[in-house]
Design brief:
A two-stranded antiparallel sheet has the order 1-2. The chain contains five helices and two strands. Helix content is 73%, strand content 4%. By secondary structure, the protein is mostly helical. The protein has helices spanning 7-32, 38-65, 77-107, 128-163, 167-172; strands at 112-115, 118-120. It is elongated.
């Protein structure tokens, strides 16, 4: 039997995968749609971003409490390093992206409205230069996140379809 991730880790993984995919699509829509749709998309982007931040912190705690299953013993060292490094980056971006977005909105002087009547406190003072830097960082990191996710999906498919070594099944089942 293939060793598996703990059930909370598997649930969080797939829930967050759906939320992050939605977030990337909403973010792409925010860049490509007319300004008439921007406020509606932003109204979805903010609460999903906060949800991802909260779930990422919970997921990190679950990961620290429940060790992941070991990688296959015959996996080449470069692939082991890539797997571990990419997971560190995934966690870093799941936490950093919402924080940068929140900081960006704060620096821009925009209230971070999660839903009507619930507005997050600003985490930075109003500073248009900082806003511009954070906006650029948020955008560039979103592209990097997207590429990292594509690599993650590619690796999962490689393990599932080519190596058939149980790595995919450890999270899928």
């Amino acid at each position: 039997m293939t060793p598996r991730f703990a059930l909370p880790a598997r649930i969080l993984h797939w829930l967050m995968a759906a939320l992050i995919l939605a977030m990337l699509l909403i973010g792409a829509g925010m860049l490509s749609t007319t300004t008439a749709r921007y406020p509606e998309l932003l109204a979805w982007h903010r609460p999903i971003g906060l949800g991802i931040l909260i779930l990422a912190l919970i997921r990190l705690a679950v990961r620290l409490m429940h060790r992941p299953p070991p990688l296959p013993a015959d996996l080449p060292p470069l692939q082991v390093a890539a797997a571990k490094g990419s997971h560190y980056l995934l966690y870093a971006l799941m936490i950093a992206m919402p924080l940068i977005g929140w900081a960006m909105q704060s620096a821009g002087g925009y209230p971070v409205t999660i839903w009507k009547g619930f507005v997050l406190f600003p985490i930075l003072p109003h500073d248009i230069v900082v806003y511009g830097l954070l906006r650029a960082a948020h955008g560039l990191l979103a592209y990097a996140f997207f590429l990292l996710i594509l690599g993650h999906i590619g690796a999962a498919l490689f393990h599932a379809l080519v190596r058939r070594d149980g790595v995919f099944e450890s999270m899928a089942g």
